[in-house]
Amino acid sequence: MQIVFSDIDGTFQEMGHPIHEINKEAIRCLQDQGDHFVFVTGRGFELVQDMMAEEGLSCDVIFGNGAGLMLKGEAPVLTHTLPYKTLAQVIGILETEEVFYFLHTDHGIISPQAHLYEAQFQESRKQLLAELGERGQIIADYKYEFFYNECLHKDDVLQFMKEHPEIKVIKIELMEASDEKRERLREMIQSETAAIFQSFVQTLEIVDPLATKGAAIRSFLEAFPAAKSYGIGDGENDLAMFEAVDVSLAVANASPAIKAVCDRTIERAEDGGVGRFILTELVSREDVVHEVD
Q1: Edge-to-edge strand order for the sheet containing 2-6?
Q2: What pLDDT shows up at residue 287?
Q3: Which CATH architecture describes the domain 84-207?
Q4: Domain boundaries defined on the chain
Q5: Which helix (H) or strand (E) element contains residue 247?
Q6: Which of 47, 161, 221, 289 has the fewest CB atoms found within 10 Å of its own CB?
Q7: Taking the model in full, what pTM does it have?
Q8: CA distance linking residue 185 with residue 98, whole number of Å
Q9: Mean pLDDT on 29-49
Q10: Domain 2-80+211-282 belongs to what architecture?
């Protein structure tokens, strides 16, 4: 048996681009021959459910960078979430430093009032445009729309969480344009109870130290001891995944540092690199017809 573990953002789907058709075809072909395709993502399970429903896909999902598991046809299960004590420590730092943050929870995404961080959003937009051009514009527009109009805003996030202990926090994500400040925040937050890493441009994520892609993949593979495993990613949060699989692959749009630690590099996310690799090298059925030119 073969099991392919794939990150989503920047790997299976490029920001600002639709999911490549060849990626969807590859999943179906892989599953048709009895193999597994598993999304391993920092997204919450609701976002992944919505994506799969929209694209007509049905896969196992490791979500929240390892905080939970959702098997095909089953309800999501949270395994490692952030306790209130850790929330208080991290949010205290972020609010003192005037850094915009948001909580990924099992009740949606919760954030402070976004308009209070307008200056930070504008600086983020400026940096994204300078570094990424048109793609940066797309990312900035998406973030602005999402954080202003789609999050659950609270005047006092920490107090709200204290009053609602039934809400489980999968991860804390922060947005900061300054490279220097992000590194300083990383040093301030990293601890025995909080793991922090970069998952996307201008962002850091804070999770339970046991909520890593690597730990979740190892647990998943316990049910398939004879399987050959592949891990495909593009970011720092994928490094733990690379260590847990037999073959690690980076898409060509990953940074040089990420590609340097992988067994090999495949085509870019926007060109359907995940699907092209699967159809070319893992799908063996002769009756499968696909286009990889």
Answers
A1: 77-78, 68-70, 60-63, 36-40, 2-6, 228-233, 247-251, 264-266
A2: 45
A3: 2-Layer Sandwich (3.30)
A4: 2-80+211-282, 84-207
A5: strand 247-251
A6: 289
A7: 0.81
A8: 11
A9: 94
A10: 3-Layer(aba) Sandwich (3.40)
